[in-house]
Amino acid sequence: MRSAMKWLVQDCQPGDSLFFHYSGHGLRQKDYNLDEIDGFDEAICPIDFETEGPIIDDEINATIVRTLPRGVKLHAVIDTCFSGTVLDLLFMYRIISREGHYQREYQRSPAAVRKKGTSGGIAISFSACDDHQTSASASAFTGKVTGVMTSSFIQAVQNEPGSTYGRLLNAMHYIIPSLVFIFLINYFLFNG
């Protein structure tokens, strides 16, 4: 996965739009370089993480965020536990009302600001949950277990192609409760 992340940003040019998706396990671990507000690094756990180690947010940022040149845009969909700041971006936009109002939150310690930005590009991430929360899985769409956030992202994009980021986030916000409801109904009907 590390080599695939390097490939993603290799030779990118102004006008390029990159897409990074991860749906799987995630974890938190103590932050040893003191660049996290909450004292923890977030990480993704590819299938070989027990032998190769998890990929922590500092490495993800250094590989696919900091290297983004001016005119390149990265869209990331991260569907894992503890994923809120797994790309170590400077700001987070959080829905604060059912009407779709947002609150902008600064997410970096002063020591991290100089090290965590892009090289002029734009990085946008949709995360399944906050850094201290776990994400959910369901089989609502395909009958196969997948991340709820991934399912809601796909449904929102299909329902409203070309949507703005805000509308996409709102659509996902309204889809997720129905997915959890469908999951709970299926679980009780088919699992006793």
From TrEMBL:
The keyword Transmembrane applies. GO terms for molecular function: cysteine-type endopeptidase activity. Belongs to the peptidase C14B family. Residues 1-173 form the Peptidase C14 caspase domain. InterPro entries: Metacaspase, Pept_C14_caspase. Keywords: Membrane, Transmembrane, Transmembrane helix. This is Peptidase C14 caspase domain-containing protein. It holds the Pfam family Peptidase_C14. GO terms for biological process: proteolysis. It comes from Citrus clementina. The chain crosses the membrane at residues 171-190. The keyword Oxidoreductase does not apply. One of its GO terms (cellular component) is cytoplasm. Signal peptide: none annotated.
